[in-house]
Amino acid sequence: MIRTPAIIALSAVACGGKGADENWKYLSGDSLAFAPQKRFRSPKYASKLCASFDMQGNSHRRPLCNWASLSALEDCIKQAPLTPFSKERIGVFAGTSVGNILESENALEDMLDKGDDCAEYKNFLNYECSSLSDAIARKARAEGPRFAVSTACSSSGLALSAACSALLCGDIDSAIVCGADTLSRITVNGFASLELLSKSACKPFDADRDGITLGEAACVMILTRADLAHKFGIKIRAFITSWSCTCDAYHATSPHPDAEGMKRAIGSAIKKSGLPASDIAYYCAHGTGTRANDSAEVAAMVSAWENPPKFSSIKGKFGHTLGASGLLNAIFSCEAIERGELPKNYGFSKRDENLGITPIAENTPFNANNVLTSSFGFGGNNSSLVISKKPTPCLFPEKGPSEIFLDGGGAVHNGAIGVENVLGGIGVNLECDISKLLPELPPIKKRRWAKLQQMALQSVSEALAGYCPDPENSCVSFGTGLGMLECTQRFVANVISKAECEALPTAFTNSVHNAISSSIAIRFAIKGLNCMLSAKELSFECALWQAILEMRSDGIEKAIVGSCDERTPLLSKIRNCALSFADNSIPLSETSAAYLASSTRSPRSFARLKLLNIESCRRDCACEAERIKHLIDNAKIPEISSVFCPFSYNRAQRNYLSSLFKALKLPLCEFYERRFGANYSISALAPILARERGKGFHLSYTKSSTGQRAVSIWEIF
Predict the structure, then answer these.
(1) The CATH number of the domain where 677 resides is what?
(2) Is residue 397 part of a domain?
(3) What is the Cα 199 distance to its own chain's centre?
(4) Which residue segment(s) compose the domain that 489 sits in?
(5) CB–CB of 692/684 below 8 Å?
(6) What percent of the chain is helix, strand and coil (3-state, nearest 5)?
(7) Whole-angstrom Cα distance, residue 461 to residue 594?
(8) pTM tops 0.85
């Protein structure tokens, strides 16, 4: 019970209103809030039904996702103030599919219609999924690690799982979990291009179901460990007993026909809970209303339970809220336990004989302790959690690996392919020649992957060097600052210029951030956690931390970790016009670096991670130096051989960092932004650079433009 994550506050802003109470009343009632959307001009899909939330109160005209999420956060903090917790021990985990992309779409429309001079380039910065986690952290004054998970419709489910793992492992004391997505051109036109939008209101699990209805939501949940809740006298609303994340490693958009990954996620969550399957009396389904997804989910349920429990989907009321859907499900699962009532599956009226089981058709009294909820996303990403009224004897490992080793590394940087060429500067100033990536594959096989995906696959291929990890005992955790920017811009620009008449479905499926991580999973058959996360300049370090959490909390033995970002003409314009703090004399670059991380040392191992600490940077140089010295002393590092800083930004930041390491009496740092150019993912080159320097302990200090920093120390053998 001591380590069990406990829910202490929850709230949601959705089409039913603001707060859990208003949305529960809407969920359990008979009204339906679906209507044509008014977020943007839509020549072709103006009549399509959507579920939008009310923007009243957004007087500051904040980006929609941020505004709605901050409203939900304010409600949560009223329920459970964060004052008992140390700021640096509060983590923020956001889940979003496309984040604040609507504002970027509007800026792109202005640029296409009126020319470059009319574009609001600062609005393109809202495209970064990490802008959501940054906004939450600022509002809550949370100074622990923060990142955004972007795995399409499973995003907030994976964010919630990551928060639970961090609490279980003792890395943080409290977690703020957010899930948010709003309507946008890319989601409406993207799902339409895949012919997945319903002709009317969606009908999950109904015989006549014909697709999804899109919705908006912003959800927030605050967690802490059960022992700390008792210590501080905080009311516990429910416990998250277990969680499991898997990947189909099958297809970019379609679920496995045998629901293989869903079955493992649900089955593993039940097993880890320590409960008999029969003790889980309700299943809050993903239930999108598409024929393939609903059929696969039912197959997974039938596999997990001899007699499947009562189940329903809330999407008939709220629509498919994409990256918010996992957390929205979790919130209403908790509410169902507290209120003693299960919500009916709105939209269901006709039994599908091919499914064999039917959802709840009426609101139903409920008196049980445990429910299970799932969310599934593009790339075969699956997340399942058990939520309980009382703590249960969970079966997570008592202690995970104490050390993490790197067994191989790979890199692509601009025109240089392979670690040796990247370090040697061969072709480093040239554009990446996509025809030279993945030479072992024929062009027809590679054409489904965009450039950034191929760069990532190339770096992973070099890191593995022919080694084949155990599929179910391995995971993928990759970082990116901007994700598939080129494909996203291409899709949205085409939608705007063609008046929604000639959508590009391949560009849409490749626009989601986890198009990168899922392509890695499919290519190398990795079926454990599949996570794509974003944390600006700290994306690699946060991806590494996520992999470590999975190893420690779930006993995973191998992880493919890395980070990648591309260079585009639009990115150059954004930096020149919107990033006033940046040193524009440093050229933009594109980078992908990947590693095979292991929980045990092997003959392949070349490095050991001795320290990884992620939190907010102290503005006072002396205070920051004292904190780093404390970290080094606790890690018992005898001597630091070299110091790396990926980002120098400008003269003020360079002076701060130089003073910092001077105060620590460490070697002068190398700003390798000067060597490799400006790119959110160049911090992923740190282990390779440490290996270049030779045996010893090497410190990497990465500071983001929003004040978060990571300290990592690598021991090279």
Answers:
(1) 3.40.47.10
(2) no
(3) 30
(4) 404-608
(5) no
(6) 40, 25, 40
(7) 9
(8) yes
